[in-house]
Amino acid sequence: MTDTASINEALSANYLLVDLELRSWSGKKTDKVAGEEVTASKGATKDGAKVIKFLFASADAELSAVSKAGQAVRQFVYSQTLPWSSAVEGAKRGSRLLAATKSFEFLRELNQVKKEYGIFSQKVPEGGGDYSVDHTATVLLFDRDGKFAGTIAPDEPDTAALGKLRNLTAA
């Protein structure tokens, strides 16, 4: 019978773990007060109504484009990898296995996207074989045609970020 160390060695020699986390803002907000008013006016049970406001109605196409771009990236990663977890939820979330034979092609394509959008990432050794990754935390903005339109930095004032969003959605 093969021991765990041998299995781990075989896996680490032939596969890489890939983690992908994409976040996008939906431009929607639940209005609890309006929901309570609807529930009360209709005599419904508690939490009988949920009112969702679209904060940037004119940005629906842009938000949809961002969502589609995220789906394309996710699909690319999923097409190149296998789920690390066999749990139902794990198949769609968490680390994924990338065959070592595909790693150069995968990294080449990933680095091209990173270069195109000025995304930075760097492995930082922390001792004892551990490491962390310094990376870009900037929000990338895309126009309604899916073209890069700018960034919002993490330390950027809210008023400046909101101005960029308004300019983008008004275009």
What would the keywords be for this entry?
171 residues, alpha+beta, 2 domains, three-stranded antiparallel sheet, two-stranded antiparallel ribbon, 5 helices, 43% helix, extended
List the helices and strands and how they pair.
Blueprint: H1 4-14, E1 15-18, E2 28-30, H2 32-42, E3 52-54, H3 60-80, E4 81-83, E5 96-99, H4 100-117, E6 121-127, E7 130-135, E8 139-142, E9 148-152, H5 158-170
Antiparallel strand pairs: 1-5, 2-3, 4-5, 6-7, 8-9
Can you offer a commentary on this structure?
With 171 residues, the protein is an alpha+beta fold. It has 2 domains: 109 residues, no CATH class; 51 residues, no CATH class. The protein is 43% helix and 23% strand. It has 5 helices and 9 strands. The strands form 4 sheets. A 3-stranded antiparallel β-sheet has the order 1-5-4. A hairpin with a 2-residue loop joins strand 6 and strand 7. The longest helix has 21 residues. The chain is extended. The mean pLDDT is 79.
Ends apart, CA distance between termini: 64 Å
For this structure, the quaternary state is: single chain
Number of strands: 9
Judged by helices, strands and strand pairing, the structural class is alpha+beta
Form type: extended
Number of separate domains: 2
- Tally the helices: 5
Helix content: 40-55%
Q: Rg from C-alpha positions?
A: 22 Å
Portion of residues in beta strands equals 15-25%
Give me the side-by-side strand order of the main sheet: 1-5-4
Major sheet: 3 strands, antiparallel
Q: Please trace the helix and strand order, writing H or E for each element.
A: HEEHEHEEHEEEEH
Question: Which residues form runs of ≥5 with pLDDT under 50?
Answer: none
Overall average pLDDT: 79
